[in-house]
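Chapter summary example.
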Amino acid sequence: MERSNRMEKFNPGDLKKLYKPISVSHKGQNGKLLIVGGSHLFHGASLWALKVASRIVDMVFYASVPENNEITQKLKSEIFDFIVVPREKINDYVNESDAILLGPGLPREEGRSKDEESTKALTEKIINDYSKLGKKWVLDAGSLTEIEPDLLKQLNGNVIITPHVREFSDLFGVEANEINVFEMSKKYNCVILLKGKKDIICGRSGCVEVEGGNEGMTKGGTGDVLAGLVAALACKNDLFLAACSASFINKKAGGTLYKKVGPYFNATDLADEIPKIMKELLL
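The structure predicted for these 283 residues follows.
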């Protein structure tokens, strides 16, 4: 049956469909996520994604450039629960992972250091090497700015992408509007979460809009927090549900912070608020 592009409001009741760990579960049963991101220039982006994801899934495998790996090792005792993985050894951890997040903090070509692998080459290599393993994928930020959209088709519908308006237009060559989000999700067999004052999410299950947000959420790193949240939820949930739920939770967290401090909060504050909102909404 042909799916409909009719836009619906997200139903917060759907949050109850999200996977919740049971009391007798064992370590590893509640999700494992591999994050590939970060660069010599962008240290924080992938760390924000890591921070929020580590609150939700049992284990995060984190693969970045050497200095980012060193930074995370120093922070590990303070706030993170993860395993640092050299990029050349991610093969050892892909099979263990439920989902793979590519892109937060990976550089555009013009911002790449001479000794760094290009984001385009890195993203294409990882997808080409592992696309047939049946993993779930989330592509964000740097990976979206450098790839060709046909690469998405290799992932057989097991992928969420999280562009903002400009990234969407650059990737697909069309205007970022409700009709085109639906058409591109259909054409490239992916779930699209278009970020904005009103998020638009389209996939096989239809199209949903999530309103909210505020000027505090324009801070650097808030998109990386959302990417980490999307990827963490994707580990144990349907991808469309994961994308819609992450959008709603993220905006709810931003709204709660706004009531407390106005626009004067940052990505770390947002990552810290999300678990509180999830407890309130899911439990």
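To summarize the output: The CA atoms of residues 18 and 241 lie 8 Å apart.
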